[in-house]
Amino acid sequence: MPQIKVTISPNVEELLALAEIIYQKHQGLGKASPLAVLDWQTQGPRVAQALAAHKRAEELKRLMEQAYEQRDALLEPVDAIVRQSRDVLKGIYRNEPRKIGEFGFNVVAAPRGKKTETA
């Protein structure tokens, strides 16, 4: 006799769909169900709750992705003008670079590297 393997999908939606089928079959068989030894009385109603929560999470994920797309579309020109502002201020305050910090920039004083002579 060949060995039979019964798989359970790791996919949440497929798992919940399987649980719903099992629960409905169990309820349909009533006391004759071979699953009467398990606590489907408690866990069965949780299947629908979990599926509803999963669907809500998927919808929120979709909305989140849309929001990130909108943000990213607006972010590129904002990033450009921030960089341009930094560059303009670096030119204006080249002798007083810490003044750039007054515009909200993080000004870090880095030690100058030693110049090496080329042969």
Can you tell me about this structure?
The chain has one domain (12-103). α1 (12-29) runs antiparallel to α2. The mean pLDDT is 92. With 119 residues, it is mostly helical. It is built from two helices and no strands.
Question: Can you describe this structure in just a few lines?
Answer:
This protein has one domain. Helix content is 60%, strand content 0%.
Topology at a glance:
Elements: H1 12-29, H2 40-92
Features:
mainly alpha; 119 residues; single chain; 2 helices
Residue fraction in strands: under 5%
Q: What class, by secondary structure content? A: mainly alpha
What characteristic shape results from the CA principal axes?
A: elongated
**What level of helicity do the residues show?**
55-70%
Mean pLDDT: 92
